[in-house]
C-alpha cells in the first residue's frame, strides 16, 4: 500500500446482487455507491451514483451473466469517474462475509487458507457464504496484488459465553455438525453499540446496551461493556425476532408437524419459515410503512401482525435486561428501527418499571443522526442510532491494512 492509498471499496456480494461503496478513509466520505441486481437474469440492473463528482445516478439495464461480469461493470463505472480499481489510491477491498464460524473473531486479510475456511463454513451458511466467496474470488482475480479483507457478520458475537451460544441438545451431535448459536448482523451491532456509548458520552467499556437491529431481517443483542453476551439469531438468521419474511423463534416441533401431518418437504418448510413467514406470512406485507397504513385504515390482520412483532420485541428487551442486569440504553437501528416511530413507542410502552420510556416529541423527530428519544429523567436511555455497516467494514478493513 502506498502512502497515498486512502480509499477502501466495500463489497457486499449476495446470491444475485452486489452492493458496493467506495469510501475515502481520511474522512469516511462516500466517493461512489451502487448496486447490481438480478445478476444472471436478462434484466440485470446496475445503479451507480458517483458522489465524488456530484454526478447523477446512472442506471443501466441488460443481461449481466455472473459476478465476474458484475464486478467488471462496477469497475468500468468507477473508472469513468477516475475512481477505478487500478487507482493507486485504492488501499484495499473489504468484503462482507456472513459466516465466519468460531475461527474468525476479527477482520482477516484474505489468502488461500482463509478462502478455504470460508468454504468449509458453507454447510452452516448455504445461502450466503457461496455468494460472498464468489465476490472475493472475482475481486482477487481483478486485483491480485491488492489486500482484500473479510469482515464477518458473526465475529462480534464470538464473545458470547458458552452458556448463551450452546443449544441444549446432545453435545456430541451439536459438535459433530457445528450446531450452535453464531448470531448475525454483528457489524451493525458492533457499530451501533459503540455509537450509542458515544451518544451517552461514555466509553463503550462503561455501558451496557440492548441493540435492536430492525430491518427486513431483524436481531437483538445484549452488549456488556462493548462485548456481545447474547444475540437473538442462532445457527442461521432464522431464530429470534419476528422479521419481514422469517418466523423467528418457533417450537422446532412445528417443522416435524409440517412434514408428518401437512406432508411438506424439507425445502417447503425452509421456504415457509424463511420466505413466507414473519410479517409477510401474518398479513401479506413486510414493509412496516404499508402495515402502519393498513392499521390506520382499521385492517385487523395488519394490526395483529404488528402486535405479534411488538410482543416478541418486548420479550427480548425483557430477556436481555435480565441477562445484562443493568441496562444503560436501548438502541433502535436499521430500516424499521430508524424510521418507524410507532414501533419504537409500542416496543417500550409499559416498560416504565424497567426504567424505559419514550418522549413522544423526541420520538417523532426525523433525522439521520444518533439521538435520544427518552425523557431526560429516564433511568435507561432509549436511542435511535442509524447503522452504517459499510463504514464499519471500511474502517475495520483500513485499520487492518494500514497497521
Ligand atoms: P435490510 O437491510 O434487512 O433489507 P433495511 O434495514 O433496509 O433492511 O430495512 C428495510 C425495512 O425498513 C423495510 O422493509 C421497511 O419495513 C422498513 N422501513 C424503511 N423505511 C421506513 C419508514 N420510513 N417507515 C417505516 N418503516 C420503514
State the helical fraction. 25-40%
Which small molecules are bound? adenosine-5'-diphosphate
Tell me about the biggest sheet?
Answer: 8 strands, mixed
Number of helical segments with 4 or more residues? 15
Report what the structure shows.
The protein has 403 residues and is of the alpha/beta class. It has two domains: 7-152, ATPase, nucleotide binding domain (Nucleotidyltransferase, domain 5, 2-Layer Sandwich); 201-389, ATPase, nucleotide binding domain (Nucleotidyltransferase, domain 5, 2-Layer Sandwich). It is built from 15 helices and 14 strands. It has helices spanning 67-80, 112-120, 129-142, 162-165, 171-176, 186-199, 253-260, 266-275, 278-283, 288-296, 300-324, 334-339, 341-348, 360-364, 389-401; strands at 7-13, 18-24, 29-37, 45-49, 58-61, 90-97, 108-109, 148-152, 208-214, 218-224, 227-231, 329-333, 371-372, 381-384. Strand 3 and strand 4 (45-49) form a beta hairpin. The longest helix has 25 residues, at 300-324. The chain is globular and about 55 Å long. The model has no long low-confidence stretch (mean pLDDT 95). The structure holds adenosine-5'-diphosphate (ADP). Adenosine-5'-diphosphate (ADP) binds next to helix 10 and helix 12.
Amino acid at each position: 500500500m502506498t502512502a497515498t492509498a486512502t480509499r477502501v471499496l466495500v463489497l457486499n456480494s449476495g446470491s444475485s446482487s452486489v452492493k458496493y461503496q467506495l469510501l475515502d478513509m481520511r474522512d469516511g466520505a462516500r466517493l461512489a455507491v451502487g448496486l447490481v441486481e438480478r445478476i444472471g437474469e436478462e434484466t440485470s440492473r446496475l445503479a451507480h451514483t458517483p458522489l465524488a463528482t456530484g454526478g447523477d445516478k446512472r442506471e443501466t439495464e441488460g443481461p449481466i451473466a455472473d459476478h465476474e461480469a458484475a464486478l467488471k461493470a462496477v469497475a468500468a463505472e468507477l473508472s469513468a469517474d477516475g475512481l477505478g480499481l487500478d487507482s493507486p489510491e485504492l488501499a484495499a477491498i473489504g468484503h462482507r462475509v456472513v459466516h465466519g464460524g468460531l475461527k474468525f473473531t476479527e477482520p482477516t486479510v484474505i489468502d488461500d487458507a482463509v478462502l478455504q475456511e470460508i468454504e468449509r463454513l458453507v454447510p452452516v451458511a448455504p445461502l450466503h457464504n457461496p455468494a460472498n466467496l464468489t465476490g472475493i474470488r472475482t475481486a482477487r482475480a481483478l486485483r491480485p496484488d491488492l489486500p482484500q479483507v473479510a469482515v464477518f457478520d458473526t465475529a462480534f458475537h464470538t464473545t458470547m459465553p458458552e452458556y448463551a451460544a450452546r443449544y441444549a441438545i446432545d453435545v456430541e451431535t451439536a459438535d459433530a455438525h457445528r450446531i450452535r448459536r453464531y448470531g448475525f448482523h454483528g457489524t451493525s451491532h458492533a457499530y451501533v453499540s459503540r455509537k450509542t456509548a458515544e451518544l451517552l458520552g461514555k466509553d463503550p467499556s462503561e455501558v451496557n446496551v440492548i441493540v435492536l437491529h430492525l430491518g427486513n431481517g431483524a436481531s437483538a443483542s445484549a452488549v456488556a461493556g462493548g462485548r456481545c453476551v447474547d444475540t437473538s439469531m442462532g445457527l442461521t438468521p432464522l431464530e429470534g425476532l419476528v422479521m419481514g419474511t422469517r418466523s423467528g423463534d418457533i417450537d422446532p416441533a412445528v417443522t416435524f408437524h409440517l412434514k408428518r401431518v401437512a406432508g411438506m418437504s424439507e425445502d417447503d418448510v425452509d421456504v415457509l419459515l424463511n420466505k413466507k413467514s414473519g410479517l409477510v406470512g401474518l398479513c401479506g406485507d413486510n414493509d412496516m410503512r404499508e402495515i402502519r397504513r393498513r392499521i390506520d385504515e382499521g385492517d385487523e390482520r395488519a394490526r395483529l401482525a404488528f402486535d405479534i412483532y411488538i410482543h416478541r420485541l418486548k420479550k427480548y428487551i425483557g430477556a436481555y435486561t435480565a441477562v445484562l442486569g443493568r441496562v444503560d440504553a436501548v438502541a433502535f437501528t436499521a430500516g424499521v428501527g430508524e424510521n418507524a416511530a410507532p414501533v419504537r413507542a409500542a416496543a417500550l410502552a409499559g416498560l416504565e418499571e424497567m426504567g424505559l420510556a419514550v418522549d413522544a416529541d423526541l420520538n417523532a423527530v426525523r433525522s439521520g443522526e444518533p439521538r435520544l428519544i427518552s425523557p431526560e429523567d429516564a433511568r435507561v436511555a432509549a436511542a435511535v442510532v442509524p447503522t452504517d455497516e459499510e463504514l464499519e467494514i471500511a474502517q475495520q478493513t483500513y485499520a487492518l491494512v494500514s497497521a
